[in-house]
Amino acid sequence: MLQESSEAIAGNIDILTEILLRLPPKPLGKFKSVSKQWLALISDPKFCHSHTLRHHPLPSALLLSSFYFPSPYFDLVSITTDSVLRVPPFDYLNAPRVSILQSCNGLLLCSSALVGDKEIRYSCSSNPYIDHCDSVVFDDNRGFRYFVCNPTTTQFATVSFPNKKFGDNIISLSLAFDPLRSPYYKIVSIRDITEGNEFVINVYSSYTGSWSDPDVCFTPPRGLAYYAPAYINDAPAYFNGAPVYFNGAILWLWSSDYEGKNSLYFDVESQCLNKLPMPPGMKFGTLDYFGECGGHCHMVVTEKPRTHFNILELKEDFSGWFVRYRVDLTPMQVAFPELTWDDEDAKHPFAVLGVFQQPREQDSKVVVLVNGTAMCFNLATHASRKLSDLCEAAGDVLAYDWRDAFLYFENLTYVIGFPISSCSLFWLLELPTFLYPFIRICGL
C-alpha cells in the first residue's frame, strides 16, 4: 500500500510540487539529485519564486566580509544559534579576492579585485590573496568584476556593461531586489562622465537584460556617501558603507563635516531622485549603523554615554526619522563582566553589526561586537546572549563594523542567467524517512 501511494505521489507533479514547496531551502538543494524530474522542478524559476513567497525568510545570520582585513574566509555568524562558521570564499564565482558590496533580500552583490593597479588600496604586491593578476581580463580599468549571487543555491550572474567606457566610469553599484514585488532584480549604477560634479544613473533590469537609456543626470550634495568597492585616488565621493534598498528605493547617506540636512534616494521604478532628510543634529563621525531588515530601514547615531544609543527608523514615505528603540547595554555589562568596556582610546567600546526588527516584537534584537565578541541583545526583554568570538587579538574591538556585516538569508531565489549545476549524492544520508519510497521509485 505504501509503495502504491508513493508511486502515485511521485507520478503526480502537482502533489509533488506541493510537498516540496513546504520544505525549507537547504534540503531542496540536495533533492535536485533524486531524479531529472526533481532537478527540473526545483530548478524551475517559477517554483523558486513560489517557494520564496511561501517562506519569505527572515535573515538567519550575518556574513562578515572586510575589505581592509583581507582573509581567505568569511565569518558566518548565526543569530538563531550560538555558532560561527569560517566559510570559504565564493569559489563558484571562479574569481579571486571576492568582497561583498551589498546584501538585498537574499541576493548578494559582490566584486572581485583582480589587479594590482596603483589606485587600488590592496595591490598584488601587498595582498597575498591575489595571484597572477596581470593575466586576467577585467571588466573596468580599476580591476573589478561584479557578480549577483545567491549563496544558498550558488547561482550567480556576472554583471556586464554596454561597453568598456561605461564600466570605466562607474563609481557605485547598488542592488535592488524584493521578491514580494518581483522575481527580477535591478542594478543601479552611478557614473562620473564629466570633469565637473555631475553624475549619471543607469538601471539594469534582469527582466529585460539591458541597461536603461537615457541617463538620469544629477549633481549630488557635498558629502554624499556612495559605496565604492575600494579607495580610488580620484574617487569624487566619500566611502561610507553600502547604500540601502528600502521600499522600492536606493538610499544614500549624507555623511561629512559639511552642514547638510538632506541626502538623496532614488526611486528605482520611476527612476526619480528625491531628497532624503537626515536626522536632526547628525554630524560626521556619529553614524554607527545604516541598514534594512524586514521592511524597516534603521540608523544608529551614537554620542554618549558609551553604552547608550538610539535606533532610528525611517518613515515609509521617506519624510523623516523617529526613535524606534532606546538601547541601554548596561544589562549586558552586568551579565558578561568578562567583556572589556573601558577602552578609553575608542569613542565607543562596541560596534553595531546588525539590527533585526522582527514581526514579533519580542524577537527583535541588535547584534553588537564587544572586544572581539559578537553579542546579541534582545530589544524587548533586554536579555543578552553570546554568539561567538570573532577576533583573535585581544582588544581588536573594531575588526568588523556595520560596513562589513551583511544579512544572510536561506532562500531559493533564482538568479537570472545562471546555468543549472549538478549536485553530489552525499545528501542521501540526511534525507527524511518519508522520502525514501520516492528514492526507491527513482532507482537510487
From TrEMBL:
Superkingdom, natural source: Eukaryota
InterPro entries found in the cross-reference section: At3g26010-like, F-box-like_dom_sf, F-box_dom
Signal peptide location: none
SMART domains in the record: FBOX
CDD domains: F-box_AtFBW1-like (cd22157)
Protein name: F-box protein
SUPFAM superfamilies, per database record: F-box domain
F-box domain boundaries: 11-51
A Pfam family annotated for this UniProt entry: F-box
